[in-house]
Write the structure tokens for this entry.
Amino acid sequence: MRSNITPGQTSDHPGFDLVMDDNLPEPCVLLADRGYDSDNVRKTMETRNVVPVIPMRKSRKLRMAVDRTFYRLRNLVERCFNRLKNARRVATRYDKTAESFLGFINVTCIRLWLRYLST
């Protein structure tokens, strides 16, 4: 897993570039929300033979279909973020530095992963 922190007032695109530039295994499908609906993201995914499952923004003129069966799986991602935010320290961001906050996010992810393995 890879995690990184971007400023709260920025869009999702810097986070997309950080994750996709890494040497992670190639995904088959990209599940994303409307924040990632841009021509650049779609072209990047299509050149890598990845199916983008991204709902369109309301302002998009060229309409594209979304596979709803794949998009329903995004619920798993949202539930993961919900479990991360159950750690009060993550939800309220007590840490002053970004490094210590990111470290605690990683510790929380490891705790959730170990809990998943024990079931």
